[in-house]
Write a structure and sequence with these properties.
The chain has eleven helices and 13 strands. 45% of the residues lie in helices and 19% in strands.
């Protein structure tokens, strides 16, 4: 009976065989950044198979439960970490371990709904063995809680739409459209990225690394551009769906910096987080991390090699400061407008479509906060400040 109730709960979300909700794809992308793995999924466990409701880097959309790490998490109802599958007597012979996607590392936390049903997992995977510390385990559990919250919000909107709530229907229609576009544009690229990760680690292909790396880098750029377009072109009157929970701004900052680390390393820009030990705010961890990521990425892109970017966190506030190109005074009133690109962005051919600050501003305003961008002038850097209600 308990399993029947759990399965009924899984099916109540109407996500099996459906287009993946963009917010869950975004959450898995965040998980790969924070935990530094090439693959992550939000996995729902059905009667005889698992389904990826969110996916970054995994080549398939569903798998049999016979070789499912996630089904083991659901069975136990607890976090599962396998640091090296080749050293584990049960897992080392599985076909997804000995063959593609060559899983060597798995860490998954259960998705538990408000009724206590374990729906599936949020997990991260790698084709290399690795260790996991207490901080990473806590982050994985936090992200799983966010995924469960987003699933609950998705189901609530579906139920409201069924009983005739026009706003919920409008949001559902928009989310269906965005999910379809994301599936048609983003999914093929992220699948290619997943396979490229495997090729990068193949020693036989070392002579071709100079060819693979630009493909991988440009694929990541294309994924970011699709994400920006999808997030930045929502109709102005459509509310931004948020998960109203508790988020720690320090963890938000860590997630944003982790997502920008490859670009910072490539440009030789040092990013440092300073401030309070914890800074809880009421809000959506995934959305706030996206806003902070846009601000940190802007700071990195406009900074000279060897220069610092500081992310300072205090109660209810995150301040990102760089010493880069700065913003002319006449451009400051326009920087949060959609598709606006300033003179320095054009002259220095900084990648982007002019949506980052607009997206960040919309996310912060949806949290009843404010985003301010200031600059002493050309060549004197920029300070972007997210101010949010504290707990």
């Amino acid at each position: 009976m308990a399993e029947d109730a759990r399965l009924a709960a899984v099916h109540s979300y109407h996500l099996l065989d459906a287009a993946r909700p963009v917010v869950l794809d975004e959450l898995t992308r965040l998980a790969t950044s924070v935990l530094d793995t090439p693959m992550s999924t939000v996995t729902l466990i059905g009667k005889d198979r698992q389904w990826y409701a969110g996916n970054t880097g995994m080549p398939a959309g569903h798998d049999s439960l016979d070789v499912s790490f996630c089904s083991r998490v659901v069975g136990a109802g607890d976090l599962l970490v396998v640091e090296d599958t080749h050293a584990h007597p049960e897992y080392r012979g599985w076909n997804n371990v000995v063959g593609a996607p060559n899983i060597r590392f798995y860490a998954g936390a259960p998705l538990v709904d408000e009724d206590g049903h374990v729906l599936g997992t949020l997990c991260v995977l790698d084709d290399q063995p690795r260790t996991v510390g207490d901080r990473q385990r806590d982050l994985l559990t936090t992200l799983a809680g966010q995924a469960a919250g987003h699933l609950s919000a998705i189901r609530t909107r579906l139920l409201l739409a069924e009983v005739g709530d026009e706003l919920s229907r409008a949001i559902s229609r928009e989310e269906d459209f965005v999910a379809t576009v994301s599936h048609e544009l983003r999914t093929p690229v992220t699948t290619i990225q997943g396979y490229l990760e495997l090729l990068v680690d193949n020693e036989e292909l070392l002579p071709y690394q100079k060819l693979i790396e630009p493909i991988q880098r440009n694929g990541e750029r294309l994924v970011r551009m699709v994400d920006h377009l999808l997030a930045g072109t929502r109709p102005a009157g459509t509310p931004l769906p948020l998960l109203r929970a508790s988020a720690d701004l320090v963890t938000v900052a860590e997630a944003a910096v982790a997502a920008c680390r490859p670009q910072a390393s490539q440009r030789d820009v040092r990013v440092e987080i300073t401030g309070d030990g914890t800074a809880p705010v009421p809000g959506d961890f995934t959305r706030l991390s996206q806003a902070a990521e846009h601000l940190v990425r802007n700071a990195v892109l406009f900074s000279a090699a060897g220069s610092p970017v500081n992310v300072h966190v205090t109660a209810g506030e995150m301040e990102i400061t760089d010493t880069g190109a700065g913003i002319p005074a006449d451009e400051l009133p326009h920087v949060v407008k959609r598709f606006y690109r300033g003179r320095f962005a054009r002259e220095q051919a900084v990648p982007g479509v002019g949506l980052g600050l607009s997206i960040a501003d919309r996310i912060v305003r949806a949290h009843d906060g404010t985003l301010t961008v200031s600059s002493p002038g050309s060549g004197q850097g920029v300070t972007a400040r997210m101010s949010l209600p504290d707990m």
